[in-house]
Design goal:
The protein has twelve helices and three strands. 34% of the residues are buried. The chain has helices at residues 3-16, 23-29, 33-38, 48-69, 75-86, 88-97, 108-112, 119-137, 139-149, 151-159, 166-178, 217-234; strands spanning 183-190, 197-204, 208-214. It has two domains: 3-160, Ribonuclease iii, N-terminal Endonuclease Domain, Chain A, CATH 1.10.1520; 166-234, Double Stranded RNA Binding Domain, CATH 3.30.160.20. A three-stranded antiparallel beta sheet has the order 1-2-3.
């Protein structure tokens, strides 16, 4: 590692609020597979294994935080809150906050396709950093970083009932499980103009189809999405 790169890693460590004993772990956490493939003489490994480890540490720590902060939540509510915290856009947003993209080692293809700003690459890199901190300093060090990073998202969740946004939750679950987004269509609208009742179907391919009702389209879509989530939980 040259002196300029080492200084960059030191700057990133300062932003993360954690000093690595083994700087090579931080270097590895920032090494994308595209860079490793193009530079086999320079690096022998990319950050995928660290990402795998970091994901497990993150899930455990966030679960612990949520159980501590929301003692009255059911298992379902805790699961929805955790999904909100650790989805790809949320992790990518935190990666941008810490300017992780600026320090990524990317192959030419990813560099040219704006890989430094892709949610998928940034989210994976954020989890890789957690894995690196865990290996370098143990669970307490990783948990300390996670608690600092997620303090604002947890506070935001506490201030408004985000877990009732069933449409967003269904979209996240659908993309993970089926690689597609839900579709909504109006099945029926009855009653006078000043007091209509809407019936809307939510469907995910040929796998899930549920119908919700409400006094407006948004309310009916949320009801249909809630029922779809319940069906997903059953399966």
């Amino acid at each position: 590692m040259d002196k300029e790169w080492i200084r960059g890693l030191e700057d990133l460590s300062e932003m993360l609020g954690y000093t690595f004993s083994d700087t090579a772990l931080l270097d590895l956490a920032l090494t994308h597979g595209s860079y490793a493939n193009e530079n086999p003489d320079l690096v022998r490994e990319d950050n995928e294994r660290l990402e795998f480890l970091g994901d497990a540490v993150l899930q455990l720590c966030i679960s612990d935080m949520l159980m501590e902060r929301f003692p009255g939540y059911t298992e379902g509510q805790l699961s929805k809150a955790r999904a909100f915290m650790v989805n790809e856009p949320s992790l990518a947003g935190l990666a941008r906050k810490y300017r992780i993209g600026e320090f990524m080692l990317l192959g030419r293809g990813e560099e040219n396709s704006e890989g430094r700003n892709k949610d998928s690459i940034l989210g994976d890199a954020f989890e890789s950093l957690i894995g690196a901190i865990y290996l370098d300093g143990g669970y307490e060090a990783a948990a300390g970083f996670i608690r600092r990073a997620f303090r604002s998202p947890v506070d935001e969740w506490a201030q408004k009932p985000v877990y009732r946004d069933y449409k967003s939750l269904l979209q996240e679950a659908s993309q993970v499980r089926f690689r597609e987004i839900p579709r909504y269509r109006i099945v029926n609208a009855s009653g006078p103009d000043h007091d209509k009742t809407f019936e809307i179907e939510a469907s995910i391919g040929d796998s899930i189809a549920t119908t919700g009702t409400g006094k407006n389209k948004k309310e009916a879509e949320q009801d249909a999405a809630r029922k779809a989530l319940e069906k997903l939980d059953e399966t």
